[in-house]
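Posting for a labmate who doesn't have an account.
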Amino acid sequence: MRNKPHLHLEEIPDSVPYSYAGGVPVNALPFQLPPRDRVPHGRARADEVRNAVAESERLRQEQADLHVQDDGQIKYITFTLRSDPGFQLRLERLDRVRQKIRLLSSRVENGIYVATISMPINKVVGFLKLIENYARRDNSHGNADNRELIESISSISLTVVQDLWSDSIPIPSLDATLWLEVWLHQFNEQPEQNYQRFAQLAQMLGFQVTSRYVKFPERLVTLAFGSLAQLSKSLDLLTLVAEVRKAKELASHYTQLSGREQADFVQHAAQRIIPPARTAPAVCLLDTGVNRGHLLLAPALEPSDLHAVDIQWGNSDHDPHQHGTTMAGIALYGCLTTILDSVDPIRLKHRLESVKLIPPPPGENSPDVYGAVTKEATARVESVAPERNRAYCLTITTDDLDNGLPSQWSAALDDCCHGGLEAIPKLVFVSAGNIGTEFFASTYSYHDWNCQKAGIEEPAQAWNAVTVGAYTEKVIERETLQDGWQVIAEPGDLTPTSRTSLPWPPDNQKEWPIKPDIVMEGGNYIEKNGERDNLDDLSLLTTCLKPTGQLLTTTRDTSPAAASAARMAAVIWSYYPQFWPETVRALMIHSAQWTPAMIRRFPGNNKSVIQKRLRCYGYGVPDLEKALFSAQNAATLIYQGELQPYHRKVSVNADGDTTENPPSTNEMHLHALPWPIEVLQQLGELNIKMHVTLSYYIESSPGRVVWGRKYRYQSHGLRFDLKRPTESLQAFRRRLTKHEWENGNRPSIVPDTRSWLIGEARNHGSIHSDWWHGNAATLAASSHIAIYPVTGWWKERPHLNKYNSKARYSLVITIETPNAEIDLYGAITAQPEVMTEIEVTS
């Protein structure tokens, strides 16, 4: 349970003179296994498989009256496997296509990894052979056969309905009746046959089953109304199921209502709103204006917080589709289905601001002044409430012709974030841009086009801004579809219209930031024979205010994704108002993770594959709970500080004449990490994950010169490095900076035994995030982290007199074990010298 405030890395870091000293490659850490006594362990797991098979046969005999004529249908059996606390299952070894053993789902429960696997009943003998070979036979390397797979398993049992619940919300009472998303596995059968078999069995048990389903390469998803207890009454039914989730409230329930009926829902929700404080953090929409008269928007949007770059434009929403007003609903509430389908109070912890960025027709801004317009818009709103924390949301983008290289607009966005000497540093979220009319062309192929031709649009290539792409979990619809229509994206994959940085030329990908940074829900689309369309049920429900009386509508693509991200930032600020924009940005990216669909799209841990996954989805989907709170077994440390990357020394000769040397690197910061060494050493082989994120803002120099050593876009760069487990602190310092070398001699370097997932690719842009898995003993020896500079135009162009500038940075570090019983948080806070809990605003 995450309910603990993050921790402040309080000790002032050591400032160490810095001069680049080179680096060495890293090595991989072996998969961690609990201690096993080989023969008894193998026999116990084999006995559990046999007992599960016997139990399945007994249940099928008891349930003989619940039978559907199957015409030779293959019978399946589903097993649930568990790990020891604090250890992982070797999941990739469980998916064995040739033996028809398939991994259905996995999750972590109180530090225990849980997986369900399915196989035809006649293939169980092969699964048993894997276990028996482990117990009695060595492989060609002299190790027990299938050792990592079998020793990672603590127990095997016949799957019950509770094992199939995969939703993020707690499992409901088994007797509770509700609409369920039922995910059927598809291995060899025709989807229609599998659906019909499920529907017949479910209806015999009293389920109401919808007549429609969504099919994916290995899944078929449909809706059924009933209880989990009913589902468990037929083993034949249960073995068809891969996962069960609660069906989500869909937008068409509200969009198909009349204006009067919509007003009833809106008024009921408005009566439950507890408005935010005037000083609450805000989402500032840089858009087409907002129609404040909407009952759901007015409590959080004061008239004084409505602006326009030009006062003659007015500040209401002039767009026929009410783009600004629809984004306002998302930025304040997220998808409205979450509040309309409730009776709870709606306590708003953030508010809204709006700056109309573009004029109403027939006027328009010339493309070459959007940077200036954006700067003017941010200055206008800050002049009214300069002390308010705010997350800017920019959902207006243009073409992708720059291929990731900086433009006037993207550079202006970078400078808005950085703030310079006079302005306030800002947190800006910008949508990655959408595939437009070409999306509906029959030649377009989902995902291939996104990753080969649809590059991120201007100004979303900005280094400092958080670029937000769109992904989707929406695959279920209740609207009537003609035969042949299918949902395009599988759950957890890219929204079909979302752009990526994979189409950027290879050289640009090497030089420019990972974009998008994160992805948020952007809805899904349907297709048939090359035709494509959208549906309300596959979109997000939001606000509008139309002459027809319509108060609710739907939206989709990267605009609501960016608005959702800005909303998340404002919520973080409502808990931690003392955080810098760089810190909130870091926490969001730090909390993100890839969905299973994203990993399947780019499988494995090869560094080139990871790079593709990053440039398609960024760091994945951020988790608000992780961004807000630590847990007993997952402690997050935060530091906010500044260093001076460069300086310029003056030499004095024997005659007293002075000479200014070229600017050089100045200092690195060395942070002592407050690990409870004795506790970690006692935990020994316990599995630990360490995640590090470094966030800072650069000052841009966007002139279109061939960028090289002298003409760099970024003012400066920072990097992090962690002390290696087998090197001393002195050796760590010597490895990083020449100033620590003895007599100018390069020291010997010990290799890194930790395997960072992203590696060198993390160093693109101005936010760097990476993680490794190892054991507690390895973490105990990783006692210091260094933040050091790399070159930039502050150093290389001394005539601009910026070489003495200081650079702010935010450092976020999390250590986590899957074993929920291990109190890492308490052990760290017990360290007397450096740790304090960060104050949380309730």
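Reply:
Got it, the structure tokens are right above this. Residues 38-62 form the longest helix (25 residues).
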